[in-house]
Design a protein that fits this description.
46% helix; 8-stranded mixed β-sheet; alpha/beta
């Protein structure tokens, strides 16, 4: 079989296990294939679930083997640095990627195909007190290695064990269990690897069944909306980073957290210990002083279980690690109970440079204008709202697209995620004129991310017509969405935002209404719309005066006409058609006449674009000394008066 065919098989095998949560969580694990002279291995930062043949990193085996002749001459951090340099020197071509830290382990295992994973069923054994004895009974032909620190120490330990086994039995074993870590399985064909894995899992399932231990995921319970609203917003501020950026707090349920550190992966993603108790400022500070870090998992007994991150993806990754840890803890009951990492062991992982690198590869956006702030945009499924969301997410915001059209908002959120990264956006359903619906929207947001930093009240409608002809139904429709809806959204958003203020130094939050130039001056045969927007500015000024004591700024931005958006250009309900039919533009005989009429009103001779509005919203957020304003974004069509 050619090397290219073997890499195809390796990639397929990698994706098979990498996409199966029974074997791999959070992109962990590794795979490789070797020829007589080359080792092909998954590089750091590439997921098993999606890896393609051409993504495997090629290493010169002769160069890689220098680790076992040169590295033993030094010790400690110096040895780790030397091993890292030797691995990088083995990459072909030089500089084409960073090899997995476990590459030397793959080198000393003589089989052609190797798959290393961390199945929960396996770690129920490897993280148990009686794991070694159980392994000897269940898998007599396998090697069990007592825990050792990852990196070069693991490589030398594995080599020593394999050399001894080969000297005794004439060949290396196919299976290596690593205490508190996972399993390596090697064979000369991909099919053999799969068969061995299947047997290992079947044997373990039988062992758990015989012990009366369920292999199902642990039910983490449910928290109430009321408890979440009371706890999560303040928790975001209490867990802010050193620059004052609030954390994202994700509800993982309502149950106990894990009781200690199980494996290196759990330490990396969820830290070694969870916070338990009432999350006061004093208690959080005490935890940090004791542990040296802010918690990634917070258990408020009887109320809620949270996972925490700088990004939503980070918080959700921690939730996956939390669920996996709880499952492993339950499974260890089959083999004498849990055997946690010791202080020396988990401290090494917490400070290990390799894991710092992995966190940086898997982390979210860097420093940006919105720095992962939670930004809600109503009417976010299309048009102005979606355009604003596209601009804000590009500035680092975590976007919540709220819309009556949930399917449309969800599709838009997935498109944003595809472009900007996993879990950068999500959708919620809402009818802004229905208070129960708005309350449910806020509860959904708090459950997912803990609170709100920027609330953009964009949802709006237009029904134009003469005051002598416009129906009360259409007038009420416009007023309910544009005016009443703004009030309802502010009412419920401000409650959440106010709870994020835990002291006088808490960061400010922002409510920004997308108003209109029609909120600055009357609009002929468009009284319902203009009236709702005039009223909106009155609400903005009033709310600004009230909410300032809760560190909430409230401003309006007043765009000119978005002539290219669906509100104007829809061929059936668009404003060009409405205004033409209403006779609002004297002498107009077609849609193009109406369009040119409105273009001529703008000194800059173009319509307003969503990005123009997003820049004004960013101004409102970044300007620390501005509230209660109505800012024109009209290309000079409307100007503030002295």
């Amino acid at each position: 079989m050619s090397t290219s065919e073997s890499l195809e098989k390796l990639a397929a095998l990698s994706r098979q296990y990498g996409s199966d949560s029974d074997y791999v969580f959070l992109g962990g694990g590794n795979t490789s294939f070797k020829t007589d002279t080359e080792l092909f291995i998954k590089p750091s930062g590439v997921a098993l679930a999606t890896i393609q043949p051409e993504q495997f990193l090629k290493l010169d085996r002769q160069e890689l083997c220098k680790i076992f002749t040169l590295a033993p001459q030094v010790s400690g951090d110096a040895r780790e640095a030397l091993v890292k340099d030797l691995q990088l020197a083995a990459v072909r071509p030089l500089g084409s990627g960073r090899p997995s830290v476990e590459a030397p382990v793959h080198e000393v295992i003589k089989y052609k195909f190797i798959v290393h994973t961390h199945p929960a069923l396996v770690n129920g054994l490897t993280c148990s007190k009686n794991g070694a004895e159980a392994c000897a009974k269940l898998f007599p032909n396998a090697i069990w290695l007592e825990y050792c620190n990852p990196g070069s120490t693991l490589s030398f330990t594995v080599k020593q064990a394999l050399d001894a086994a080969e000297a005794k039995n004439g060949k290396q074993p196919n299976v290596i269990f690593l205490q508190k870590h996972g399993v390596f399985i090697g064979a000369d064909t991909a099919e053999e690897v799969a068969a061995i894995y299947a047997n290992v899992m079947d044997v373990l399932k039988k062992a758990y069944e015989d012990a009366g231990i369920s292999t199902a995921d642990v039910d983490l319970g449910n928290a109430s909306d009321e408890d979440l609203a009371e706890i999560a917003p303040a928790l975001r501020t209490l867990l802010a980073d050193e620059n004052g950026n609030r954390a994202i707090v994700h509800c993982a349920g309502n149950s106990a957290a894990f009781a200690g550190p199980l494996t290196p992966d759990h330490v990396v993603y969820a830290k070694s210990f969870a916070f338990r108790g009432e999350p006061t400022a004093e208690a959080i500070a005490e935890f940090k002083a004791q542990r040296g870090y802010l918690p990634k998992v917070v258990e408020v007994p009887g109320k809620a279980l949270f996972t925490v991150g700088a990004t939503l993806n980070d918080a959700k990754s921690t939730a996956i690690a939390l669920a996996n840890a709880r499952k492993i803890e339950a499974l260890t009951a089959a083999f004498g109970g849990v055997n946690y990492l010791t202080e020396e062991q988990y401290s090494f992982i917490e400070n290990w440079e390799v894991e710092s690198y992995r966190r940086s590869v898997n982390g979210g956006a860097g420093a940006t204008r919105l720095q992962n702030r939670i930004c809600v945009v109503t009417g976010g499924a299309q048009g102005f709202g979606l355009g604003i969301a596209q601009s804000l997410i590009a500035q680092g915001g975590t976007m919540v697209l709220a819309d009556m059209n949930f399917d449309g908002a969800n599709a838009a959120a997935q498109e944003l995620n595809a472009k900007h990264g996993k879990n950068r956006a999500f959708a919620v359903a809402v009818n802004v004129a229905d208070e129960d619906s708005v309350a449910k929207m806020m509860a959904d947001i708090v459950r997912e991310v803990g609170g709100i930093d920027v609330f953009v009240n964009n949802a709006g409608v237009v029904r134009s017509g003469s005051v002598m002809e416009l129906s009360v139904k259409d007038f009420n429709f416009v007023t309910n969405i544009n005016y009443l809806g703004y009030f309802i959204c502010c009412k419920h958003a401000s409650k959440i935002m106010a709870k994020q203020m835990t002291d006088k130094d808490s960061p400010w939050t922002d409510i920004v209404q997308v108003n209109s130039k029609s909120g600055l001056e009357g609009s002929n045969k468009n009284g319902a719309y203009a009236g709702s927007k005039f009223g909106g500015i009155g609400l903005t000024q009033s709310f600004a005066k009230e909410l300032v004591t809760s560190h909430i700024k409230v401003n309006s931005v007043c765009p000119g006409n978005y002539l290219d958006g669906p509100l104007w250009s829809d061929p059936v309900r668009g404003l060009f058609v409405q205004y033409l039919n209403a006779g609002k533009v004297p002498g107009a005989t077609c849609v193009e006449d109406v369009r040119e009429f409105y273009m001529a009103k703008v000194p800059m001779h173009r319509g307003c674009l969503p990005d123009d509005v997003a820049k004004a919203i960013l101004y409102c957020v970044e300007q620390k000394y501005e509230t209660g304003q109505a800012i024109p974004v009209t290309g000079g069509q409307n100007m503030l008066h002295a």
